[in-house]
Amino acid sequence: xxxxxxxxxxxxxxxxxxxxxxxxxxxxxxxxxxxxxxxxxxxxxxxxxxxxxxxxxxxxxxxxxxxxxxxxxxxxxxxxxxxxxxxxxxxxxxxxxxxxxxxxxxxxxxxxxxxxxxxxxxxxxxxxxxxxxxxx
Length: 136
Description:
alpha+beta; 3-stranded antiparallel sheet; two-stranded antiparallel sheet; IraD/Gp25-like; GPW/gp25 family protein
């Protein structure tokens, strides 16, 4: 694989896509695969996956809760716990909930992590929308 880091893994691209020329599924590799895995993990409700009912974060249960320091800490803990259980390739270093855009109905979940196998630090920002779409 690329850069000799094939030990980090590969998986289907997200969302799934297929190559029109050869009919094969498009794959992600290495760090990109880890980032897609984080997106899936944070965006999945517990019970949504049939064979892994405990997989996910259930962040959408918090959509109508009032936002305060306790909720901020709870959200960060939900994300960190899910990563510790379901993404063994990384170690979460810091989970920060950025509330800059809270009045627009959006929180930014910033995940700083360490790839265990390469001892490399990265971060991923996941937008969490507090409201459903209102424009029709």
